[in-house]
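Dear support,

We are seeing what looks like truncated structure output for some complexes. This example has two components. We would appreciate it if you could run it in full and send us the complete token output so we can diff it against ours.
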Amino acid sequence: MKTFRILTICGTGIATSTVAAEKCKQYLTKRGLKVEVVECKAVEASGKIPVYSPHVVVATTPVNDSALHGTKKFSGLPFLTGVGMDKLADEIAAYLQSLE
Amino acid sequence: MQIINFILDLGPTVMMPIIIMLLGLLFRQGFPRAFRSGLTIGMGFAGIFLVISMLTSNLSPATQAMVTNWGLHLDVMDVGWPIAAAISFGTPIVPAVFIMGLFINVLMLSMNWTKTMDIDLWNYWHFIFSGALIMYLTNSAILGIIASGITIVIVLKLADWTQPYVAKVFDMPGISLPHTESISWAPLGILLNKVIDKIPGINKIDINPEKIQERFGVFGEPMLIGLVLGAFIGVLAGYTVEGVVKLSVNMAAVLFLMPRMVRILMEGLLPLSESGREYLSNRFPGKEVFIGLDAAVVIGHPSVMAVCILMIPITLLLAAVLPGNRILPFTDLAGLPFCLLWAVAPSKGNVFRGLIISTIFMVGILYIATDLALVTTLMAKQVNFPFPEGTAAISSLDGGAHLIPYIIFKIVEIFH
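Here is the complete output from our reference environment:
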């Protein structure tokens, strides 16, 4: 089974992206997907994306579109607030599966 | 009693894991999970201590040389918010503040005194920090805990009050930012923005943030800040080329590694944070609330980023020329967005105004950070932070941004 690479982006790369990353991994694994999650800060995104080539970006802070290099971005806020986590996970899972 | 003292003497690396584990058991996480998160916290502390050792052992002699060579009275080291957080989590009032904080939030929500449900338990460290300031000033844990409580109430109210800005400027409806070191400055930021509105000519200027991020964005990266600043300090300290390069790389390493160590701490706190969040959500199913989050969710805004990048040299300049300032900005140059968020938000992202207001904020932050150096250093020593011989004092720009706790601190100081 293919392992999907997910990049979580946050303001500090510490607090919020850790939560988003853990939840992301948890919820997507529950939906039967194999994922690898890496975190970074908003300022590092532009440099990190070409190197890591994530399939999808989950951001908990605003990110410049130019920094995304065309990668699909989801707002990771639901993973932080606890509201709408299942819906978000469904959307990400659907997108990843459509990539196969 | 003996046992408690024994545990306290072991220092935060052992004490915190035990406390977190006990809190976890209290929230019914089950022993394995509670134990793991406790141990992970211990690992986080161990990692943080390692990095701060590297910071002080490298930077301290350099800053002392700088003082000798140039008469620059920048002898207070800015160790940054990660250390301030770690120190706060190492004080004995942690469990009391956690539990009291949740209780206050629940109480205020049920009485409709606030609409903010602060689920960001990581940032309870700010409340603990406030309490710790008062505790070490007055030698009374009770007063410290009360101070924490007062801070929590004020921060929740400010979060409610500024929520419309969060919704409009940052496009986050239903979210508020009860984050102490940013929101303390919100009233001042909003006021200053209104003042600028009245100044003819100036009130029309704006600068495009995208251009700034494109050209200078790379300077916002902590690794590079460390490298450049380390080199600069090495030169000022009169080091040989070899010395300058070594210091430069070591400082880059410190700024790069520190956040990662703090991440480990955060991982350990996650289960507790989840439990706290579930507890709060379950008490108020279906109630209309603002969800209180870490300000990190908005600092990616291009105007905020742009202002903070430009503020790096401005901050350094201010630190050098302001009479009476003793703090050498360093680690928290990477954390400026948290302190300066509300310099930018009131004008809806106007970079020019953001710069002016930020500069004014920064003057305050530098002086407050200098004033808090004594008690911050004392706090660090009390929680057994590793200090090499002859290190002067520590503080942080982020600590300097804790305006509300500082006001409480000064008021208590008058009566003490």
